[in-house]
Amino acid sequence: MDPFVVKNQLRMDKNYWSKVEPKVKEIARKAENFQDWKPGEVLDYAITIASYLVSKDLRTNQIRKILEMVRNVELKVKTGRDEDIRDDVVRIRLLLAYTVGRSQKNTKEALEHLYMVLEPILKKMSEDNNFAVNNFGKFFDFLQAIVAYHRFLGGKEK
Amino acid sequence: MDIKELIALGGLFHDIGKPVQRAHLYSGDHSIQGYRFLLDLARETGVKEYETLALFARYHHRKYMEEVEKLKIPDDVKVALYLVYIADNISSREREDERSGYDVRRPLKSVFNRDLSYPLYQLSLERLPIPGTVERIGSEEYRRIVEALKGDMKRVEPRTDKVMPILEKHLTFVSSVTTENNVISLYDHLKMTSAIALALYNAGCRPRSVGEAEKCMKEKNLLLIEGDFSGIQDFIYSVSGKGTLKYLRARSAYLELIGWDIVLKIIKDLNLTLANIVFNAGGHFMIVAQNTKDARNKLEDIRRKVTTWLWKSFEGKLYIGIDWEECSGEELMKDFKEVRGRLKKKVTIRKLKRFEFVDGVFSIGKAEKLEECQICGVEVPEEELKELEFKDGEVAKVCKTCHALWFLGERLIKMEKGLVLTDKITGEGIPGPFSEFLPYEGQLQGKYLLLKNTFNPPRTDMVFVPYVVADYYREKEGRVINFNELAEESMGAKRIGVIKGDVDKLGEYFANRRSISEYSTASRFMDYFFKFYLKGVIRGYYSDIIGEVPSLSEWKENPNVVVVYAGGDDFFIVGSWNEIFELAFRIREAFRRYTGGGLTISMALGYFHPKTPIYRIADVMTERLEKAKDEGRDAIYVIERTGWRISYPWEIYMDFWREIGRKVYSDGRLTEKFGDKKGLLHKVLELRELYVRDPRDVRWAYLLAYHLSRHEVEEVFRRILGIDSKALEEGKPQPIYWVDGILKVILMAVRG
Hints:
The complex is a heterodimer of chains A (158) and B (752).
Chain A: H1 3-12, H2 16-30, H3 39-55, H4 64-79, H5 86-102, H6 105-127, H7 129-152
Helix pairs in contact in A: 1-3, 2-3, 2-6, 3-7, 4-5, 4-7, 5-6, 6-7
Chain B: H1 3-13, H2 17-22, H3 30-45, H4 49-58, H5 62-65, H6 75-91, H7 139-154, H8 160-171, H9 186-202, H10 210-218, E1 222-230, H11 232-237, H12 245-269, E2 277-281, E3 284-290, H13 293-314, E4 319-327, H14 329-334, H15 336-353, E5 370-372, E6 379-381, E7 386-389, E8 395-398, H16 400-414, E9 418-422, E10 430-431, E11 436-440, E12 448-452, E13 463-467, E14 475-476, E15 479-480, H17 483-488, E16 496-503, H18 506-511, H19 516-539, H20 543-546, E17 561-567, E18 570-576, H21 577-594, E19 601-608, H22 614-630, E20 635-637, E21 648-649, H23 650-664, E22 665-666, E23 669-670, H24 678-693, H25 699-710, H26 718-721, H27 725-730, H28 739-749
Parallel strand pairs in B: 12-13, 19-20
Antiparallel strand pairs in B: 1-3, 1-4, 2-3, 5-6, 7-8, 9-11, 9-12, 10-11, 14-15, 16-18, 16-19, 17-18, 20-21, 22-23
Helix pairs in contact in B: 1-4, 1-6, 1-8, 1-9, 3-4, 6-9, 6-10, 7-8, 8-9, 9-19, 12-13, 12-16, 19-21, 23-28, 24-25, 24-28
């Protein structure tokens, strides 16, 4: 997927989100098999989701806390400080749900879709520590990629 | 006129009627028109010899040969006519191609690419000959060439050494035969005919009929001689710290002169002419001679003397393998590839044996004390060392060769005219194996006059040898610029730059030449690119042909560049690093057009501190060029990099430069957008590293997108930003892999 093409389409079409919404839903369905996503797919999905979030005018400061939390857990996994990260994952899930819940009308929908994609992955992690430890790096990458492309596609921080 | 000279000239003039006929100057076939042309020349100049030479134009085809017997001319001239007749047969294999029929307007096809052809013009440095889609050549164009040729002929006496350069200048782009797809220049056909005819005569052939002439051709009357230097690199570059740039140049020139000395000695001892030298370039020569016991003995003798001399002078650093292979004219005609193949094997074996003739190679010298020359490291008896005082007051003890080269180095480079090879051992010149070399300023007398870069014969009794040499150097205060100054003149990082390059798969290319004339055309055209046109490329000529290339600064007319060596198929050039960088691309584009894309070239670039020892530079350059060759050739080693392929295919680098380099950098600085973004460029390099460390990881992709968009320059890097899924499937590197060679060079240019 060429991010430049997406960027262009976004600029041309105010209702771009309505076109990618079904794709985001499809990604949410595929989230069940997160472990099977190939590196290229991770990027493509991140671009799609980022484009949806930008089109919905989501600002990244709204998910800053989640990002920070994920980064800390990633560091933990990487350095192997703690073997069981299920509790951490549960905390991320809670924060994610809370962020969606308290969001304002205009961005609620955007966050709900992000939730739809991330929640199945996190859920699986909180149930299976082995899965969590093995896939957390990839999850972190995925989220980072969403934020990076959000920026690339013209999304704002605040 | 001496009969041998007559045969040699007869060979050179026998087909002069071809351009004359194509110019429609007279009527009749080319034999008759050539005959009449030479008769007119005899009348206009009053030189009687041209009347005799006209006979060679008139009688060299079978259908006319019957008339020779009845001619009222001396017997030895008849013999000469039969010899040229048969030599013409031998040297022109192209006749086999007669099926396509003749069309006098057909141009000469390129020996590098048979689909392209040359327009008709004189050989000159100003014009880079580019084969293209020339359909036909008109009689008007031939007329111009013939008139100019005649004008030049009138100015010289009929001597092979003086006639040859004139023929070469005017007939190089004349097709030897107007069948389709002929790649042999008429000049080379004339030269080879002359060479073979004389060699047959020297072999004792005295044919008095066509039948006897044909017999001469079937017997093993000929020798193909080949010589090939080894250790050239070691010889030129393994000098100690005191070896300055001008000294390096002098050493490479010296090497070339040693080659000439050997070739000219063979020619002289075997009673041959310059026409018998098929080529002499890049430390490699080939000669056509007679196969007689006497000739072989003389060759043995020369070989022994050369070998001993080389051993004594350079302690085995430099060696030349010389060998010969007997063959019949028929073989030279039909099986040139095989004959040459056999000879090449012999030369290779000879090179492996090295110095077998030299007595005492393994014995330790007399009890005398040996000391090392402080420049080249040769060990000589203490009393033979001479003192050399450098500008900085330091005194070094050096061998006599280095001593002579040191003082003559500057003169050798700056000489306007050329050199004289003389027998006289004055001690003032540089010693060669057989002669002494002295710069020529217009006075000196000697055996040979090697005049630089001209095809116009001088008025002299000495034998004239055109000495084509890529002698460009940047002058500074009336002398050759030095390493420190080259670095000082460079942009950004103060470094000297070096290019080393050579043509890809050249051995294979030459092994596939079908006839000796084709070989001659091919080697001459190849050599001239590096000796002749390279200088034009450096001076900034041919820019319309070269087109746009990666560049860091405006190309000046007198760039900060010194050619250390160029000839044959390779070169080694030093300069300010940013100019050397651009020069590589200029040379490549010129070469690509020059060969019509038929051959490729690989090069290596290096950037060094001016105090780096020369032998170290030479080693690094050799390694890098080998790398580019190993990685598939047609490539340039631009800069050190990480990853699984270090060199760049030319097109990839130039593409990336156009797409990214030009937008980041132009007019000697970072573009406005990037003026304050060196940090970002370093970040891009870092992300490329991330990719190289784990190509399956994709973090680099989104991080790159993130950083570039933060600085709002994502458009510039469009090419490397996304993941190329096709490349991924094919196992090829992602575009980002190639970006570092562009950015590193730019960062070097803007380093404070």
